[in-house]
Design goal:
By secondary structure, the chain is of the alpha+beta class. The protein is about 20% helix and about 30% strand. Helix 9 packs across helix 14.
Amino acid sequence: MDLRNVAIIAHVDHGKTTLVDELLKQSGAFRENQAVAERAMDSNELERERGITIFAKPTSVEWKGTRINIVDTPGHADFGGEVERILSMVDGVVLLVDAAEGPMPQTKFVTSKALALGLRPIVVLNKVDKPDAEPDRALDECFDLFANLDADEDQLDFPHLYASGRSGWADPELDGPRKDLSALFNLIVNHVPAPRQITRQDDDFRMLATTLGADPFVGRVLTGRVESGTLRVGATVQALSRIGQKIEQFRVTKIQAFRGLAQQDIDEAQAGDIVSIAGMSKATVADTICALAVDEPLDAQPIDPPTITVTFGINDSPLAGRDGKKVQSRVIRERLMKEAESNVAIKVADTPGGEAFEVSGRGELQMGVLIENMRREGFELSISRPQVIMREENGALMEPVEEATIDVDDDYSGAVIEKLTGARKGELVEMRPAGAGKTRIIAHVPSRGLIGYHGEFLTDTRGTGVLNRVFHGWTPHKGPIPGRRAGVLISMENGEAVAYALWNLEDRGRMFLGAQAPVYTGMIIGEHSRDNDLEVNPLKGKKLTNVRASGSDEAVRLTTPVTMSLEEAIAYINDDELVEVTPNAIRLRKRYLDPHERKRAAKAS
């Protein structure tokens, strides 16, 4: 059977996974009466909750005698490591672009990787049936994007389709019949080249491992594309590292191919197909699985380095161990090392004391997803504020800069520009009308300036603004950037918060918790209305007397407390604060719980 390997890439919420749903349905991958969940490829629990794709996942469909292996990729740049790995498995890409929004930052990030590998793109202008769609403008912007990314002549001469993924149609013309996706299927078969096989005289088996998984019955499972030769169940193969060092020799116990949403056991894998194999104990991502006669590994694409680092430590608060069972540093280290093995975009390093670990990654969202997965597994952690990774070039200190693309209502554009180009040291690159009363702002802002900015941005734009960011490059260090301006309210007692005490503290600022919530000395219970920290007593009850009078005993009515998500809490804290994460709670606290230690640390700094 003819093979085509293609990846679908797009910005967040441009409709990748919804389009894959329709491709699976119209290719006959489902029975006529089969019940299938919406966004079937988003199989992970967090993916379905957040509505985003986090992990790259392959599937396959058959179309008129051709098997098409499709890889659904994440749209957010924080998960770019997933995309960089799987692009080596495909021979073409389908670039999905919202006809109203046009190419966005994450689109630019992934497309640059695909074009650098020489992959031939197909542009699909999605959601053209929306009232604010401008497909002609979006198509022109795609061409400009390709030109800016140094695409060659073949890549610039890309075919395009107009589509609606939710309605399940794609046509070469905007006023086409709008019936089905057959035009997209045919274009993939005719435009994407068949898999390129590595030609060797002996034609031995070779496969580059791109993703690592685990199966409770067969153990480690590696997925990749067979580059040359064939592989049969029971064959003895070896694993080579990137530098050609032999890691292990093992017998292949299982080979699985992707067929629709399921994986099917097969006896033999052919060159060009994407398969998963089991039987190894040490081989991992970026290793070459090959025949015993092979002594040269396949080239693995370099992965962009991490840009931020977060310290993961044990939870040493007075409430430690009440919610989670995994609280020891040894268990936390094992889990982080396991994550770093399967996710090549994450690096883990021990700190001098051995009680905490520095985890480096692409962004706050990637760190947030890792922490959320760990807390659901029963871990308790203390998390520090993200720190940007600097580097030196020719004796000068360099810091990462991100390209922020912002869509806001015209009324709020001034406040946004003032914040970004003022204290946060950003540079305005472009500002233009985006239609429907909105303005598009593009700015280059130091990564340090964007940490913790999102909450402030939503406040400034009354929740209507959209902020997208992607790594742009390196620039000389721009000097100090102020952090959070407001101070915090710190508990000076251990116990349960009293409604009367919180009611009296509402004049001091906004609360992060309600009555009966457990508190301890050094825990942050609210934000101070001024710029200094204030120690308060949330346990102080009302003094009772035997005198009763009208109006003196009215019920206390508390303002609803501010509830932060995990990412918001991590971005909110300062350098001397931590986020305490347990399976059931997210709390903020000072790094030093004892007030005397806090004063000594403040003097030392």
